[in-house]
Amino acid sequence: MNKQRVASLWFVGTLLFALLSMLVPLPGVLQPFKPYWPALFLLYWSLESNDRVSLGLAFIIGLFADLLDGVVLGEQALRLCAIVFIALRFRSRLRFFPMWQLTLAVLALLLNDRVLLLIVRTFAGEPLPPASWWISPFVGAALWPFLFLLMDDLRMRLRIQ
């Protein structure tokens, strides 16, 4: 198998893994601690791959996530497009941040995602979520260094550019 095919399979495989890991059921007590996996994986690929991630891809992944999760169609597509847009816009700066600053930037992006989700759900007529709803971005930011280093190591072992 040539390098380009391995790279494509690795890219698509990680995004499918992100969508499927979003579906893992957790007990009600642990549900607020569930990170937004598609956002984390798209953030990684936005920072590490210049030409693979676009707003169109984020929109398509978001639509699939909407269909799999059973939420309002376009909700996660909007959220992922906003995250990817900001990540691509500031990619040249974010790539050279030390890990602790990059983690804080990811936290800011995930908090921005929660605010956007709150706005969408408020317009949909849902009540305000409990305070524990805000835990997920902090869990995602705490997992970010480990996810980033794991994905980077696997990418280097597969010699994917």
TrEMBL record:
<keyword id="KW-1003">Cell membrane</keyword>
<keyword id="KW-0133">Cell shape</keyword>
<protein>
    <recommendedName>
        <fullName>Rod shape-determining protein MreD</fullName>
    </recommendedName>
</protein>
<dbReference type="GO" id="GO:0008360">
    <property type="term" value="P:regulation of cell shape"/>
</dbReference>
<dbReference type="InterPro" id="IPR007227">
    <property type="entry name" value="Cell_shape_determining_MreD"/>
</dbReference>
<feature type="transmembrane region" description="Helical">
    <location>
        <begin position="94"/>
        <end position="111"/>
    </location>
</feature>
<comment type="similarity">
    <text>Belongs to the MreD family.</text>
</comment>
<keyword id="KW-1133">Transmembrane helix</keyword>
<comment type="function">
    <text>Involved in formation of the rod shape of the cell. May also contribute to regulation of formation of penicillin-binding proteins.</text>
</comment>
<keyword id="KW-0472">Membrane</keyword>
<feature type="transmembrane region" description="Helical">
    <location>
        <begin position="54"/>
        <end position="73"/>
    </location>
</feature>
<keyword id="KW-0997">Cell inner membrane</keyword>
<feature type="transmembrane region" description="Helical">
    <location>
        <begin position="131"/>
        <end position="151"/>
    </location>
</feature>
<dbReference type="GO" id="GO:0005886">
    <property type="term" value="C:plasma membrane"/>
</dbReference>
<dbReference type="Pfam" id="PF04093">
    <property type="entry name" value="MreD"/>
</dbReference>
<keyword id="KW-0812">Transmembrane</keyword>
<dbReference type="InterPro" id="IPR026034">
    <property type="entry name" value="MreD_proteobac"/>
</dbReference>
